[in-house]
Specification:
about 240 residues; alpha/beta; TIM Barrel; two-stranded antiparallel sheet; globular
């Protein structure tokens, strides 16, 4: 057996072992890992602890990401940003700030392709290019990957597992729908009405409109969640808590 095959097998075994330990935590079975026809993805964390993970897709944005970082800094909480490689390349100082302020950075492809419908070669090219860009800025290689649109198949999961990473989506009732740019109250209601322990909440720091209502919504969502006793964690912290 050549070294390439050996290394591939070892990487897959490492990821599977990691998934086993996550899935074996008391009270966290079927909460952390969702199994489907293609493999396993992360959709939520432990229900035993009052924690949530705020996640932001499609950035960085030169204005809104900075505004969100300011809010997170004000409340001294950490989040996870799934960034596009092309925007990380354009705004490296924002990526650097995210990293230096203790936030987690995830891979969201280079150009927001539909990972399920992309060729294996194109997907790997976009994934690797984004990994390299983020590493060049932070000296850290992301361990979480969120496919755009939440669209994935077996080749997506295989690629991520072979790179000792994980596919992470969001909790069933925690798509804030801010990508549609609804009114502030709608984003707030979408987030707060069904929140549960271990939720992974989906927001966007980059929206393709003249203005985003996410920032103003967060100014109400965050203090309300804090008043309900929730703590805010990055995805890696959520996974670690879910193992215990």
């Amino acid at each position: 057996m050549n070294n390439l095959k050996t290394n591939k097998i070892l990487c897959v075994l490492l990821v599977l072992a990691n998934l086993f330990f996550i899935n074996s935590g008391q009270g966290s079975k079927k909460q952390v890992i969702a199994e489907n026809e293609y493999g396993m993805v992360v959709k939520s964390g432990t229900k035993n602890k009052k924690v949530v993970a705020l996640t932001f897709d499609d950035g960085p944005h030169p204005r809104y990401t900075e505004d969100i970082l300011n809010i997170l800094d004000e409340y001294d909480i950490k989040a996870t940003f799934f960034v596009l490689g092309k925007l990380a390349e354009t705004y490296p100082d924002i990526i650097k700030r995210q990293w230096e302020e203790g936030h987690e950075i995830g891979n969201h492809t280079y150009s927001h392709i539909d990972a399920k419908n992309a060729s294996k070669e194109k997907l790997l090219e976009e994934y690797k290019k984004t990994q390299d860009i983020i590493y060049s800025i932070t000296k850290y290689e992301p361990k979480v990957f969120r496919p755009p649109y939440g669209s994935f198949d077996k080749k997506v999961i295989d690629m991520v597992e072979e790179n000792s990473s994980m596919v992470v989506l969001w909790s069933a009732n925690q798509d804030s729908k801010d990508w549609k740019n609804p009114e502030i109250e709608k984003i707030i209601n979408n987030t707060l009405s069904n929140v549960e322990n271990g939720d992974i909440i989906l927001f966007h720091d980059y929206v393709y409109y003249d203005e985003s209502h996410t920032v103003e919504a967060l100014k109400q969502i965050i203090p309300e969640l804090k008043s309900r006793g929730y703590e805010f964690v990055t995805l890696s912290e959520l996974l670690k808590l879910s193992r215990n």
